[in-house]
Each structure stands twice: as structure tokens, then as C-alpha cells.
From TrEMBL:
CC annotations in GO: membrane
Protein name: histidine kinase
Domain of life: Bacteria
EC class (word): transferase
Subcellular location: Membrane
Topology relative to the membrane: Multi-pass membrane protein
UniProt-listed Enzyme Commission number(s): 2.7.13.3
Domain PAS: from-to ranges: 156-186
SUPFAM superfamilies: ATPase domain of HSP90 chaperone/DNA topoisomerase II/histidine kinase, Homodimeric domain of signal transducing histidine kinase, PYP-like sensor domain (PAS domain)
One Pfam family hit: PAS_9
Domain Histidine kinase: 279-495
Catalytic activity annotation: ATP + protein L-histidine = ADP + protein N-phospho-L-histidine
UniProt keyword annotation of Acetylation present: no
Length: 495
């Protein structure tokens, strides 16, 4: 017997390391040949099935050919194994005392020799208790109806009094990403974030007592963890039930991730709106005050040359106010125009933007590389997209380096389309953005160190991001100091 075990551990080249680890440490396992004849069974397997190892070696493995599984289930098991693929499922049998036994089973086909031959390593977990409780719950018609009448809540999980999961609905499977096979018998805390990992049902009830009651049901908001390790927020109601002297807990959850995200966005927008009103009043007042002062000086000045200087200063002040006014105007367009859709003529739109920006300093020395492909049927709002292109191209011009023998400034403008989306790329080889500022540049009124020197108002990129999001798109930026910046926008097709 020991020799056979060592053959499996040391001689089989195809066995994977993870299987070796399971075989060495798991409490219940068997080894069979390709026909399902038992070659090895450990002591715990014999104990749980109440059999003697010497009497089952060389015998047909009843669990792998059980009369308690349908013909289709047995055929699926063997066809999967003969293909050399891992099989997972629940195997059932009757013990000598007449009780049912259910084993959560994983069977690994292990190739050996030069031919296409397999032996099968079966790893078991006894879930008989969970299956029995599950059946009892299904028999209790009142509770069963109560659980599934509450299906609109979305996620329903039933545990025993120790917190082990014995039943859950399709909504729970979708939300957490585990199959029923994977979750059955697991403690409910496997679904919780780290700080709740060691929780008991009593701990949850203790948390609930700190919160107000809603319609006589205690409600708690907490974070859960899906199979991929991603957190999401749920609203939880806990109910206790007794059946045949056994106590069960029903965890009813509603995924409120979207609601929480919306609430957080609303709070952020409220803060931005308050800042917007405050800064708008301040930033509009400054050029008006300056303009009024310059006009008063012009009235009192007699020298034509000095008047000319003051007029030039007044013109700059008015232009500064106009830039800010345009920003406010663009901001007000977003919600109004995001649903007004037309087919976008991207070549004409880009050409119009470049014509608008021709008077920008450094424009004439920059090479514009325009590449537009397959974008004939894309629908969006042309006014909003014009604002996006204008802001990003204007920024690229503003932060470009002057042409020299060592440097030829360029701006790439590329638009490509697929069945699902349009991708807009605007990149340059200019001054770039510091890494520490990349996650801040889209914030309202945020200005980089370079922008403070240029006297910009900090509205441009904030407006661009809000326009893109209003069109259900996404924007990201990559940049390196002295090597340039590249903005990539993806906007989904609406039709």
C-alpha cells in the first residue's frame, strides 16, 4: 500500500504540484484505475464510509458509478474523465445504517506511461450535513415561499447556526461569482471584506443593533467581496428561523454599489458646484475691476503712446475675461446638449478647430498629424466634441516647445472607429505633465505649476472630462516631463 502511494507522489510525471499538496494534506481521498477500480483509499475515507480498506481494494468504486446519480450524470462524469479533464460535483451514496452521504468531489485524471492511460485521484469533502439541512429547508413550504417571495431583494443566503452556507439563490451566485459547488459548506465570512473575515452570525446581529430598524427589519450597510477580490456595497437584512428544532439564518442583500457610487458622485458634484459659484464670481470680478481701472487711467491720460499701452493692457484683460466666459458657457452646455445626437463629420470638425486656433502663438511652427479612419456613421453632439478637441489641441499648442534645430514640435490627432466605440487620441511632444499631477488635472479649478505661470483658469480639462462622461465615455492621460502628453478618449456608440 505504501509503495502504491509513493508511486502516485513521486513517479507520476503528469501530476501537478497543487494536486500533490492536496494529496498530502487532505483528509479524504482515493485512487482508482481507469475503470474505476479502487487502488488506494486513506483511513478517513474508510472511516466515513464505515468500510475496511482491505475489503474495498480491487473493488469497483461505488461512488463513481452510483445508483443515486442519474444515468446522464454518471455518463457526464466518465466522458469528462476519459477526455483527461478534471471533474467536479457532488457524489451521493447510502451507508450501511441507511443514512445518506454526500461528498463534494474533485477528480483529477493523471496520465502515466507512454500511452494515453489515466488513473484518477479523487478528493472529497463531506457535506452531508449541509445537504440534509438543504432538503429540510425545501420541505418547509412556508420558509421556502418566504425566501423566494423575497427574490426582488436580489441576494439570498441561508446559513446554519454556525454560519455555514447551506443554500443560496441565483442572485447570490451572480453577485459573488461562486458556483453552488464552490460555496456550499463554506462559512459566510468568506464573502466579507477582511475586517469581517472572522465574523460569526452573532457578530452580524451585534452590528445590526447599532443601526435603526426599517419596517421592523434590521438593516445594515456593509462591504462584501466577490470571487475576483472586488469589493461591493450591500444593504443587509438578517432573519432567524427555526425548523424542527434547528436554527437557521437568512441573509437578504441588495447590491447598492450603483446607489453608493451615485451618492458619492452627487456629493462631489455638490462640492464642485459650490466651488464653481464662488470661483466664478471671484474670477469674473477680477478682470472687470482691472478693466474699470484701466478705463479710468485712459480717461486721465494725455499721452497717446501711454494710452496705446493702456489699451493693449485692456485688450489682454478683456481676452482673459472672454476665455473664462467661454469656459462657463461650455460648462453650461454639457447637460443641455449631451442627448442631442448627429452624425459627426470628424474631418470637418478637426479642420474647424484648427482654423479657430490659427492665431495661437507657436501654431505656425507645429506640425499637425491628422489621421481619421472609418468614422462616417458615429453619432454624438458636435458642439460638445468641438469643445473637447479645442481644449485638448489648444493645451497641446500652449505647452509645446519652440521650434529649433534640435526640436520639431508636432501634435497627433487621431480618430478611429470600431463596431462599439470611437477612440480619439491627441498627443504631442511638448513639455508634458508631472506624474504627481496626472490624477489631479481633471479636477475643477486645478492648475499645474506651469499653468499658474500662464494664468489659465483651471476649467478646461474639468469641462473635457465632464463632457466625455456625459457621453458615457472615458478619458485617460499618459505623460512624461519634456517628452509630451497623450490624451485618449473612448466614446461608445449610441446606435
Amino acid at each position: 500500500m505504501k509503495a502504491l502511494k509513493h508511486f502516485w507522489l513521486d513517479k507520476t510525471n503528469e501530476i501537478v504540484e497543487s494536486s500533490k499538496s492536496i494529496l498530502n494534506t487532505n483528509s479524504i481521498y482515493t485512487i482508482t484505475d481507469s475503470k474505476g477500480i479502487i487502488e488506494y483509499a486513506n483511513d478517513n475515507f474508510c472511516k466515513i464510509l464505515d468500510c475496511n480498506v482491505n475489503t474495498i481494494i480491487g473493488e469497483r468504486h461505488e461512488l463513481m458509478n452510483s445508483e443515486f446519480q442519474s444515468i446522464e450524470e454518471n455518463e457526464n462524469l466518465w466522458s469528462t474523465l476519459k477526455e483527461g479533464e478534471e471533474w467536479r460535483g457532488v457524489l451521493t451514496d447510502k451507508l450501511k445504517n441507511g443514512e445518506s452521504i454526500s461528498l463534494k468531489t474533485t477528480i483529477f485524471p493523471i496520465k502515466y506511461g507512454n500511452q494515453n492511460k489515466f488513473k484518477f485521484l479523487s478528493i472529497y469533502e463531506d457535506i452531508s450535513k449541509c445537504m440534509t439541512l438543504n432538503q429540510k429547508i425545501d420541505k418547509d413550504e412556508a420558509l421556502y415561499k418566504f425566501i423566494y417571495k423575497s427574490i426582488k431583494i436580489g441576494i439570498i443566503i441561508v446559513t446554519d447556526d454556525n454560519g455555514s452556507i447551506i443554500k443560496w439563490n441565483e442572485g447570490a451566485e451572480k453577485a459573488f461569482g461562486y458556483s453552488e459547488f464552490e460555496i456550499l459548506g463554506q462559512h459566510f465570512s468568506v464573502l466579507m471584506i477582511e475586517k469581517h473575515k472572522n465574523s460569526k452570525i452573532s457578530d452580524l446581529l451585534g452590528l445590526l443593533k447599532r443601526y435603526k430598524t426599517v419596517k421592523k427589519s434590521e438593516v445594515l450597510e456593509l462591504k462584501c467581496l466577490n470571487k475576483q477580490g472586488e469589493e461591493f456595497s450591500v444593504e443587509l437584512i438578517v432573519n432567524k428561523w427555526d425548523i424542527e428544532g434547528k436554527r437557521y439564518t437568512i441573509l437578504k442583500m441588495l447590491d447598492i454599489t450603483k446607489r453608493v457610487t451615485f451618492q458619492n458622485k452627487l456629493k462631489q458634484k455638490t462640492k464642485e458646484l459650490e466651488l464653481f459659484f464662488y470661483r466664478s464670481a471671484h474670477d469674473l470680478n477680477a478682470p472687470f475691476s482691472s478693466a474699470q481701472g484701466l478705463i479710468n487711467l485712459i480717461k486721465e491720460e494725455e499721452s497717446i503712446e501711454k494710452i496705446q499701452i493702456l489699451i493693449e493692457m485692456l485688450e489682454k484683460t478683456i481676452n482673459h475675461a472672454k476665455v473664462f466666459s467661454d469656459g462657463l458657457s461650455n460648462a453650461s452646455l454639457i447637460s443641455k446638449l449631451s442627448n442631442e445626437l448627429k452624425i459627426i463629420d470628424f474631418p470637418t470638425l478637426v479642420d474647424d478647430v484648427l482654423k479657430m486656433l490659427k492665431r495661437e502663438s507657436k501654431f505656425e511652427n507645429i506640425k499637425f498629424n491628422v489621421d481619421i479612419e472609418n468614422c462616417h456613421s458615429f453619432k454624438s453632439n458636435p458642439d460638445l466634441l468641438l469643445v473637447v478637441f479645442k481644449n485638448l489641441i489648444q493645451n497641446a499648442i500652449k505647452y509645446s516647445y519652440v521650434q529649433s534645430e534640435c526640436h520639431a514640435p508636432f501634435i497627433d490627432i487621431k480618430v478611429t472607429s470600431s463596431d462599439n466605440e470611437v477612440v480619439i487620441l491627441i498627443g504631442d511632444n511638448g513639455k508634458g505633465i508631472a506624474k504627481k499631477e496626472l490624477n489631479k488635472i481633471f479636477k475643477l479649478y486645478y492648475r499645474t505649476e506651469a499653468e499658474h505661470c500662464l494664468g489659465t483658469n483651471g476649467l478646461g480639462l474639468y469641462i473635457v472630462k465632464n463632457i466625455v462622461e456625459s457621453l458615457n465615455g472615458k478619458i485617460k492621460v499618459e505623460s512624461e516631463i519634456n517628452k509630451g502628453a497623450c490624451f485618449v478618449i473612448k466614446i461608445p456608440r449610441t446606435i
